[in-house]
Write a structure and sequence with these properties.
By secondary structure, the protein is mainly alpha-helical. The protein has 35 helices and 5 strands. Strands 2-3-1-4-5 form a 5-stranded parallel beta sheet, sandwiched between helices.
Length: 664
């Protein structure tokens, strides 16, 4: 079906033509009409700013740009236009700052690179000028299609970018930059395996290209292939051992692989060269936090906020420790950052969640909820999650994972009893259960391993839209020996995370959607369902900004329906696999710690050890949002925190419906 042009689209074409012909007064008149009817039209606001500049009306131009940057915080062309304005007025430093923001958000803006090169050269900074000129030259050499792809990627038009990139690659299947950009698109769409393959191929064709290795490391990290990522980072560092960028990447991968001492030593080296580097200060804080060195982590995060108050990641990292109290000055700084048009979209999200925590700690629950709601709204704009699609996934599991399937496949799978799966919803007490079990001498605590989710993704195949229930339907068709191989692969691929104990935990919460698959590939694995009272669990998830995934958590309606679907699916697993899952209610653990510890250990076939009751004394790296909480003795303090926000939680109660206890 052909899309019909709209009056606004027609008007914008006329405006563009007038601007190209130099008829800026005519363009301004047409823009006034468009903006009167459609004041939030991003293209029109951008054109209005450019037109005002050409008409030598800087105040008007800056006003439009202020509107545009608030409307589209990561729109690189807005900052490029700001750079042009500052440069015209002779404000070189402000122009450079604007141009550098422009290329941070959209590295395909050739005019910004050239302007940086000229302005830096005028300052006598020949190295920075040469680097900017090299970037401009690289863009100049790009095929026209790939320049368009790069622009579309960084303006959030990923599907348009994919269409052009695929067409280009059909004609140029070995084009290195084309492969890199298509991998970038795959990453943004969540197709990490395809991106991994593309980058591996590109590196084989061009092994000296550092950008390919950097992109590949990021993909491997997203897939939690930490050993492979570290190996790639080592090769990258070998190309230029003095590069602060390569050092930082190697430090991050050392941290992800669990070598915190090595990571921290390298971060410190980088900071000797670049003492104000925000990314390094923040990453160093993450490493210190995970290693349990909380005070040092706080100092590292705070240094980042002092250097750049708009660095939302550091503000949120402080809030996410759960133990930091924000001062009046902190709150004022964050509120000022929120009003700054230069704050990025992700920065707005980070600061909104941090302010939510700051106001909650002060008992100002209305202001707290307002900020949590804003952070969730902004984050949801970045997701493609729908309740309807998730419900289809739940129903497919119930439809295909039947008693007949499990009876017919009795005896299949790999017989290793080592894995203990802890699953359910995030913020339901799974980190506490993991810390309890990992305190046992026979259990290694690992992290949220992606292996089962990756396997499910592979079993779905490439026709995920046209054949949505291929998995789990395929479980009926695979040969028996395939289940043994898949289970053995899981054990081998997760070995890097273990320290030699006979048992280990895997606390990926989303694995509850794949209990049938887990049972068939690892029939002797233990499965624990970490459950928490629905209002407390869902609101705790809503308050949490997750590093990756959990896209259902950014709306009260979505998270309520997700919890409801989870309870329904767990009821199904209880019926078709009776006794397979041990349900552990968080409130019961808080009320009777030793009793629940004994119950869990008995289920796992482990002898009682007092260290499991004294879990908070266990020294180990903990990589979740609850890392500081599980280093404290158990407390009832958090059980009813949600009630402070109850006036705002009507949509959550409605979505939960029958999943709510009768008395709530």
């Amino acid at each position: 079906m052909t899309t019909q042009p709209t009056p606004t689209a027609d008007a914008l074409k006329s405006i563009k033509a007038a601007m190209q012909a130099g008829r800026f007064d005519e363009a301004a008149t047409l823009l006034d009409n468009v903006l009167a009817n459609d004041p939030d039209n991003q293209d029109a606001v951008y054109m209005a700013a450019a037109t005002a500049r050409y008409r030598d009306r800087p105040e008007e131009a800056f006003k439009h740009l202020d509107t545009l940057k608030r409307m589209a915080p990561d729109f690189g062309r807005a900052f490029q236009e700001e750079g042009h304005l500052h440069r015209r007025q002779g404000h070189a430093a402000a122009a450079i700052a604007a141009y550098e923001r422009a290329v941070r958000y959209n590295p395909a803006l050739n005019a910004s690179w050239l302007a940086i090169a000229e302005l830096r050269a005028a300052q006598g900074n020949t190295q920075a000028a040469a680097e900017a000129r090299a970037q401009a030259e690289r863009l100049k050499q790009l095929p026209r299609e790939l320049l368009a792809v790069t622009n579309f990627i960084h303006e959030g038009k990923v599907l348009q970018a994919e269409r052009i990139a695929r067409a280009f690659m059909q004609q140029n299947p070995r084009h290195i930059e084309g492969m890199r950009l298509l991998a970038d698109i795959g990453t943004r769409l969540g197709v990490h395996e395809d991106a991994d393959f593309l980058l591996e191929t590109a590196i084989e064709l061009d092994p000296g290209n550092p950008q390919l290795k950097i992109d590949h490391i990021q993909i491997l990290r997203k897939r939690q292939k930490y050993e492979a990522a570290l190996a790639q980072a080592e090769k990258l560092l070998a190309q230029d051992p003095k590069s602060p960028v390569f050092k930082s990447i190697y430090a991050i991968e050392s941290m992800q692989a669990g070598n915190y001492d090595a990571a921290l030593a390298i971060f410190d080296e980088v900071l000797e060269t670049l003492p104000d580097d925000l990314a390094t200060l923040t990453s160093r804080g993450h490493a210190l936090k995970t290693a349990g060195r909380t005070e040092e982590a706080v100092a590292s995060y705070r240094r980042a906020t002092k250097i750049e108050p708009l660095h939302g990641d550091a503000w949120y990292s402080l809030a996410n420790l759960k133990t930091v109290s924000f001062s009046d000055a902190d709150i004022d700084a964050m509120l000022a950052a929120k009003q700054d048009p230069n704050l990025s979209h992700m920065g707005r999200i980070h600061i909104a969640f941090a302010l939510g925590k700051a106001f909650e700690d002060r008992g100002d629950y209305d202001a707290s909820f307002e900020n949590y709601a804003e952070g969730n709204r902004l984050k949801k704009l970045q997701t493609r999650y729908t309740t309807e699609q998730m419900q289809e996934e739940f129903e497919a599991q119930k439809r295909h994972c039947t008693p007949e399937l499990f009876e017919r496949r009795t005896g299949v799978g790999h017989d290793d009893p080592a894995p203990i799966f802890i699953l359910g919803l995030p913020r339901a007490g799974s980190t506490l259960i993991e810390q309890i079990l990992a305190s046992h001498s026979q259990v290694d605590g690992t992290l949220e391993l992606p292996n089962i989710l990756s396997l499910a993704h592979r079993l779905r195949g490439r026709k995920q839209v046209s054949d949505r229930d291929r998995y789990p339907r395929i479980l009926h068709d695979l040969p028996d020996e395939k289940f043994e191989k898949l289970g053995r692969d899981y054990i081998e691929n997760t070995a890097i995370h273990r320290k030699g104990a006979p048992f280990f935990t895997d606390k990926m919460p989303n694995n509850f959607r794949h209990i049938g698959l887990i049972h068939m590939i690892l029939p002797n694995a233990k499965i624990i369902d970490a459950r928490r009272e629905p209002m407390a669990c869902c609101f705790s998830g809503y308050k949490q900004l997750f590093a990756e995934g959990q896209e259902f958590s950014y709306s009260l309606d979505d998270i309520g329906h997700y919890y409801r679907g989870y309870v329904d699916l767990m009821d199904h697993w209880d019926k078709v696999l009776p006794g397979k899952v041990l349900r552990v209610q968080h409130e019961d653990v808080v009320a009777d710690l030793e009793g629940q510890v004994r119950r869990m250990l008995e289920f796992c076939g482990l002898p009682f050890e007092q260290a499991c009751v004294d879990f908070h004394q266990t020294k180990r790296a903990v990589r979740t949002a609850s890392s500081e909480q599980v280093r404290q003795p158990i407390s009832k303090a958090g059980l009813d925190q949600w009630r402070h926000f109850e006036p705002h939680l009507g949509p959550l109660k409605e979505a939960l419906g029958p999943a709510l206890p009768q008395e709530t």
